[in-house]
Design brief:
Helices cover about 35% and strands about 15% of the residues. It is an alpha/beta fold. It folds into two domains: about 160 residues, Rossmann fold, CATH 3.40.50.2000; about 180 residues, Rossmann fold. It has a six-stranded parallel β-sheet with strand order 3-2-1-4-5-6, sandwiched between helices. It has a six-stranded parallel β-sheet with strand order 9-8-7-10-11-12, sandwiched between helices. Helix 9 links the parallel strand 7 and strand 8. The longest helix is centred in the N-terminal third of the chain and has 17 residues. It is globular, with a radius of gyration of 22 Å.
Amino acid sequence: MMTQALATKMSSPPRRILIIKLRHHGDMLLTTPVINSLRQHFPDAEIDMLMYHETRDMLACLPALTNMFTIDRQWKKLGPRVHTGHEIRLVRRLMQRKYDLVVNLGDQWRSAIVTRLSGAPVRLGFDFPKRRGKIWPFCHTQLVSTEGHGKLHTVEQNLAILAPLNLTLSTQATMSYSPEDEQVISNLLHEHGVKLPFIVVQPTSRWFFKCWTEEKMAETFRALSAKGFPIVVTAGPDKRELEMVEKILVLCPGLNITSLAGKLTLRQLAALIDQAALFIGVDSVPMHMAAALQTPLVALFGPSKLTFWKPWQAKGEVIWAGDYGPLPDPDTINTHTSERYLDAIPAQVVIDAAERLLP
């Protein structure tokens, strides 16, 4: 049942719903419980998503979504006139959809303006303290309190916006990929002679302060390889990430290690992780993917906000560097620092956790 205030605005189940989230890849994955909850409660509705273009791969195969509309952040490089033209055409397309319900998970003015221009009779947003004033409430028909968000995981924060709808919530995150993605991975595993069961390790993040040292990662590789498990290493295509992987591999001569670093799309990576016996990784998108896929995992965490960003409903163990040494306040970190805050975690702790989870 909906609240009385919403029931007067939406007398029948919504035919079209728009969800807005303009953030990073991991943030998009953690919106899937909201999408799944709406799909579960409104099975006949068309559910669309507005997101950044570069994050589209995270939701491209999600069955619950009908359409994905994207904002390309490269538009701003085309000059003000062209950029504005793209934005206007996008908003017009959204207005033509005639949404009955808009769920704005964002805190940007752009997301609020799109919410208002959608013309939907029900427009939900969060009552962010930094957005107090006249314009933010004007863009939404109902604002949901963020009080208590500081103690909630990001998934729980997202789901809180559905409170006015009084829905039965689906809390499981979903990472989807296509049969074509699965076939690519099967071919690559066959090509490299990787046999089941194998371990996937993502030692890198685009922010190096979230990474462990190459020496400790190599020590872990050597220990697990000695147990007879093939290891598949993955990483993003960034030059610094690939260099980190190479440094680790140099420290592991003669081991049964296959590097697919920089060679996979996000959905192909999901298909790989889904077949793995174990995932080991730092605080990054692949860690959230492994948790959503329910692949056993060992997650190495540093000075990120653990309450917000630990792997959601993970099957495995989270190892926090703060249990082994002091960490700085997450809000004070220079994200471009070369400091390796995870270095406090002993290699043997990770090795022991991995061995407990391996078949």
